[in-house]
Amino acid sequence: MSVSSPATGTETDAAKRDAPDAPRGGKEGRGAAARERGREATGRETLEIHLEHARWRHFGWMVFGLVSGVLLVWIFGVVAKVIGVVLLLIALLAGYGFARTLLYTPGRIVIGDGALLLPAGLCRGIEHRFALGDVRHAFFLRRAVPWTRASPILVVEVGDRAFSYPRDWFVTERQQRRVADAINLHLGRGTGP
After folding, report:
1. DSSP string, 31-72
2. Same domain for 94 and 113?
3. How many CB atoms lie within 10 A of CB 36?
4. 30 assigned to some structural domain
5. 113 and 81 in one domain?
6. What is the pLDDT of residues 31-85, one digit of tens each?
């Protein structure tokens, strides 16, 4: 049995299928791999994931809204002036978001030492500390997501509060998965498929 293809050096499908210790693609294989990732992430160590700001997205919308809004209000007729005012309001909102990214750090999620540290939101400057025993659930929303948010959304339920963290707040989707795996491992639930 050849483990790698002579042309590319990667495993062939036949070699993967015939290997005696190859993980199978069922739920058991995925769940075991996810539990192993969670153990790697939390095995007596502290897991700390830093969130990612959207500074330049806010800056781009701010510049676009200002330039196009001022041009529409200044040069064109009544309908364009209304659209220009709407664009100026969007620019104002984006400017507020841009200023928040300059004033506050994006935030971080820390799991370890029996505690969970969650940010109130992106670039808010507020962090909440909870005991891991107070956490009820950690799961993903993949399809029931508002059109203004990137999917998947990590939802962490603590007590009577729910914290949601969209995909675009993380550098990679793997960071979201590591947080969910680590929390579910501490809850004794393992992880889902």
Report:
1. HHHHHHHHHHHHSSS-EEEE----HHHHHHHHHHHHHHHHHH
2. no
3. 12
4. no
5. no
6. 444 444 444 444 557 888 888 888 888 999 999 999 999 999 998 889 999 999 9
38, with CB counted inside 10 A (0-12, 13-18, 19+), is buried
User: Which one of 103, 125, 141 terminates a domain?
Assistant: 103
Instruction: State pLDDT tens for residues 97-131.
Output: 999 999 998 889 999 888 889 898 888 888 889 98
Q: Is 88 in the same domain as 150?
A: no
DSSP 8-19: TSSPPHHHHHH-
Model confidence, pTM: 0.64
Whether residues 166 and 112 fall in one domain: yes
Backbone torsions φ then ψ of 16, nearest 5 degrees:
-65, -40
153-158, strands of its sheet edge to edge: 135-141, 153-158, 161-166
What is the residue range of 73's domain? 55-103
Query: In b/e form, how buried is each residue of 77-90, taking b as 16+ CB within 10 angstroms?
Result: eeeeeeebeebbeb
- In residues, how long is the chain? 193
In the numeric block, the tokens 């750090």 are attached to 105
Cβ pair 13, 1 in contact under 8 A: no
How many domains does the chain contain in total? 2
